[in-house]
Design goal:
Helix content is about 40%, strand content about 20%. By secondary structure, the protein is of the alpha/beta class. It has a single domain (about 10-265), classed as 3-Layer(aba) Sandwich (Rossmann fold). The chain has an eight-stranded mixed β-sheet with strand order 3-4-2-5-1-6-7-8, sandwiched between helices.
Length: about 260
């Protein structure tokens, strides 16, 4: 995949959409790709907080008002990772304006990741319209699955391809929905399974995404595997116990198969 814009959406708040956007951006940048993270949650922008960018002066708000260019609103975070923050926008934005403003950046960045609003309105529509493909963040419970089905339906209505689901906040308990149940209901493959991991709240507290704080954490490894499939590169889990387990138990997980399909698209 090259020069693509991915929208990260979910309709239910608290699922971890912004956390997924931040950590996926970090993971993609580790492969030497030029990444831009865009905060398109205009009602409650918070992507910048994950990177210590608490009160940005130049944001998408000024870009939409044509007070500054989109290039002026970009903040450099690391060598391969830039941020385009947002600030509270009181008036309802034109859902097609985001795509227009991001258009000049598509040749500059290998991948643009858009963090959408968690509400089914023109803000989410802006992300869907501006994206080449969509990832839907969900969790293994019935209320979230119901919201996920609405998000999937909305993306399909706009004819924006859905790359897959990112299953977050998994506890590996019997009362949770299985991967098979979620895939069957949504008709969308699961590309990553993120267990509940203390590295995530630690990253939020330290205003540094957990994937950057502890690259060997389970969640960090899962983000790296997903990123590898997006950039079409190989990635091997560096943890000794994982290698040992793989040697004795040749287990192939459903999400591993799905990522291989994504890699070969």
């Amino acid at each position: 995949m090259k020069n693509k814009t991915f929208g990260i959406i979910s309709i239910k708040g608290g699922v971890g959409k912004t956390t997924v956007s931040a950590n996926l951006g970090i993971a993609l940048s580790q492969f030497g790709k030029k990444i831009l993270l865009v905060d398109a949650d205009f009602s409650s922008p918070s992507l910048g907080i994950h990177f210590g960018l608490l009160k940005p002066v130049k944001t998408l708000h000024q870009v939409f008002k044509d007070k500054i260019t989109v290039h002026e609103a970009i903040h450099e975070y690391a060598e391969n990772l830039d941020l385009l923050p947002s600030s509270l926008i009181a008036n309802k934005p034109n859902p097609y304006l985001l795509k227009e403003k991001l258009a000049p950046l598509k040749e500059i960045y290998d991948f643009i990741i858009i963090d959408s609003s968690p509400t089914l309105n023109d803000e989410m529509l802006a992300t869907i319209v501006a994206s080449d493909e969509i990832f839907v963040v969900t969790s293994p419970d019935y209320p979230t699955l119901s919201a996920t089905l609405h998000a999937v339906k909305t993306a399909k209505k706009q004819k924006t391809p859905i790359s897959g689901l990112i299953l977050n906040r998994v506890h590996n308990k019997k009362f949770e929905l299985t991967l098979e149940e979620i895939e069957e209901a949504s008709e969308v493959p699961i590309m990553a399974v993120l267990r509940e991991d203390l590295i995530i709240p630690q990253g939020i507290a330290e205003t540094t995404p957990g994937t950057a704080i502890k690259p060997t954490a389970h969640t960090s490894i899962e983000f790296m595997k997903l990123a590898a499939s997006i950039v079409n590169e190989e990635y091997e889990d560096p943890r000794f116990l994982t290698k040992l387990r793989k040697f004795f138990i040749n287990e192939i997980k459903k999400e591993d198969i799905n990522r291989e399909v994504l890699r070969n698209k």
